């Protein structure tokens, strides 16, 4: 178990967090730049000394502000995967992996390095230099180096950010599989919720130095605790005020949107609120189409952009507040979607989350 209670100030950031990461578990710290993610990672690694709090791994204190305990970084036994991998260009792959091994003969260091390279499927690269490797290969070598000394905890700083978009998906799936096989607690930081969902058993969303919500990624996406979390998970967030609250006779909450229009939700709420819906829950219809189905929300809109994203198409919509729908290519052709086209955005009350503003 890795545990940390941290209180410290770094520049304008006032950090105050508490977290626990069990063995064989990866916790992804996710949030925008400046939220405090890397500060937490550096404090756990011993590269930053907090103002107060406590950090422990396996019951051993690494930092205790009250008792003035501070274990040096090199004595904590953390494996650290840097954002740019930080491989030594003048050393071969196997020597990079064996770099942190101390007190072993050359043969023992070589054997440990090759064992890990084989595990990660890159043993054939043992005698090559990092400059000749692909991004995904460098990532696996860097992870092997982080694990070579048999660390007590693994720390990963934006592990996919150094990869190009073409290789990020495959490398992310591979890294997720490797993390699932580890026996130590892992703490990962990222600014990308999709990456956090892919790699973390749980996701802790940070904002302004605080953990604002923690849980499995699907739970955060389905039940965000705030408009900030909803926006971070990829939902569209609209603002408004509750004008009719749900009760025994009225099953839906009605929210008047800032700028005009109303939406309905099965969630409760009162006063000023944030309303969120994921783009894939929004369908588009021509303005003249009769109302059909069970969708309670219908807002007239104008198409402002049509962007292909993989096998889906994101459609930007102009309303008093911007909205995004995610539809199929067939829908784009059927509705003749293009900038300037008038449509009706439709989605269900059950897909609409209401949270405090």
TrEMBL record:
SUPFAM superfamilies: MOP-like, P-loop containing nucleoside triphosphate hydrolases. Residues 292-356 form the Mop domain. GO terms for biological process: molybdate ion transport. Residues 1-233 form the ABC transporter domain. InterPro entries: AAA+_ATPase (IPR003593), ABC_SmlMolc_Importer (IPR050093), ABC_transporter-like_ATP-bd (IPR003439), ABC_transporter-like_CS (IPR017871), Mo/tungstate-bd_C_term_dom (IPR008995), Mop_domain (IPR004606), P-loop_NTPase (IPR027417), Transp-assoc_OB_typ1 (IPR005116). Gene3D superfamilies: 2.40.50.100, P-loop containing nucleotide triphosphate hydrolases. Keywords: ATP-binding, Molybdenum, Nucleotide-binding, Transport. This is Molybdate transport system ATP-binding protein. It comes from Conexibacter arvalis.
């Amino acid at each position: 178990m890795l545990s940390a209670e941290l209180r410290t100030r770094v520049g304008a950031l006032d950090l105050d967090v508490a977290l626990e990461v069990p063995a064989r578990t990866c916790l992804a710290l996710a949030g925008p730049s400046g939220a405090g993610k890397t500060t937490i990672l550096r404090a756990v690694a011993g590269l930053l000394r907090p103002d107060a709090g406590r950090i422990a791994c396996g019951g051993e204190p690494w930092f205790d502000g009250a008792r003035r305990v501070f274990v040096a970084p090199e004595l904590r036994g953390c494996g650290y995967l840097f954002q740019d991998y930080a491989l030594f260009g003048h050393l071969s792959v196997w020597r990079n992996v064996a770099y942190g091994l101390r007190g072993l003969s050359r043969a023992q260091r070589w054997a440990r390095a090759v064992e890990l390279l084989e595990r990660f499927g890159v043993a054939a690269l043992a005698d090559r230099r990092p400059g000749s490797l692909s991004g995904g290969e460098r990532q696996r070598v860097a992870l092997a180096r982080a694990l070579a000394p048999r660390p007590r905890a693994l720390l990963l700083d934006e592990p996919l950010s150094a990869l190009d978009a073409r290789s990020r998906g495959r490398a992310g799936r591979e890294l997720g599989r490797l993390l699932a096989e580890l026996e130590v607690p892992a703490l990962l930081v990222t600014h990308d919720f999709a990456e956090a969902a892919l790699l973390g058993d749980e996701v802790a969303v940070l904002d302004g130095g605080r953990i604002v919500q923690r849980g499995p990624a699907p739970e955060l996406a389905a039940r965000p605790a705030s408009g900030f979390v909803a926006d971070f998970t990829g939902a569209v967030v609209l603002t408004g005020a509750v004008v009719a609250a749900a009760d025994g006779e009225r099953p839906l909450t009605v929210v008047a949107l800032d700028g005009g229009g109303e939406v309905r939700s099965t969630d409760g709420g009162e006063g000023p609120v944030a309303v969120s819906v994921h783009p894939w829950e929004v369908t588009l219809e021509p303005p003249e189409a009769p109302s059909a189905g069970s969708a309670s929300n219908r807002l007239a809109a104008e198409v402002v952009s049509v962007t292909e994203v993989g096998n889906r198409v994101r459609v930007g919509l102009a309303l008093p507040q911007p909205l995004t729908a995610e539809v199929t290519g067939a829908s784009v052709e059927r509705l003749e979607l293009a900038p300037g086209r008038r449509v009706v955005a439709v989605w269900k009350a059950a897909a609409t989350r209401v949270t405090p503003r």
